[in-house]
Write a structure and sequence with these properties.
The protein has 201 residues and is an all-alpha fold. The protein has 2 domains: 53 residues; 122 residues, no CATH class. It has 6 helices and no strands. It is rod-shaped and about 145 Å long.
């Protein structure tokens, strides 16, 4: 049979052409399949890179938001710290004025009265009555302004006033400091907690 193919050049050329066509078709199929696999791998890689890029962008956005929140919390805590210092100074001044004047036999007049009223008003504006503690402290501040008209006689029926008022002042200062600390830690403005109000008898 090989002699027949070789002896007839047309048949031989046709056989080689057929074999070459089959070989070309097989190679083309193999190469196309390989190209499809490479294309699929490229698409998967592109999708994975796009997902990683999106994840990185989301993390950068979250990080930027966290940085902005932290910066805002820092600015808020700085403002709160200044207010805390002013409150502490007002409370200290008021307690000092009360220690110096609570045994006055009659009404308090002049500069001492003005200073006491100013400190009471400043603290009252800082502690607007939003909760039981705030309400109690404001009532105690009202007692102090009432004392200005009577002098030491006002305290005879209220012997436990000063220890309760001092404790409420300390609790207010501590609660405001805790608010500053929590604002910094949480990265957002936190409301001041309402400590337990100390009442006097």
């Amino acid at each position: 049979m090989l002699d027949f193919l070789i002896s007839t050049p047309a048949v031989f050329a046709a056989s080689i052409a057929a074999f070459a066509a089959i070989l070309t078709a097989t190679a083309t199929l193999f190469i196309n399949r390989r190209l499809q696999l490479i294309d699929l791998d490229l698409k998967r890689s592109t999708a994975a890179i796009a997902k990683q890029t999106a994840d990185i962008a989301a993390k950068q956005t979250d990080l930027k938001e966290s940085e902005l929140r932290a910066a805002a919390a820092f600015r808020a805590s700085d403002t709160l710290l200044k207010r805390h210092e002013a409150l502490r100074n007002d409370v200290c001044s008021l307690l000092t004025l009360l220690d110096l004047n609570r045994l006055s036999p009659g009404p308090i007049q002049g500069e001492a009265r003005k200073d006491i009223v100013m400190k009471c008003n400043s603290i009252s504006l800082f502690v607007s009555p939003r909760g039981k503690f705030d309400e109690t402290l404001n009532v105690q501040l009202d007692h102090i302004t009432a004392f200005l008209d009577e002098g030491e006689n006002y305290w005879r029926n209220r012997p436990g006033f000063f220890p309760a008022f001092r404790l409420n002042c300390w609790n207010l200062i501590d609660a405001e400091f805790d608010r500053i600390r929590d604002t910094i830690q949480k990265g957002e403005l936190v409301a001041r907690r309402q400590p337990e109000a100390r009442m006097f008898v």
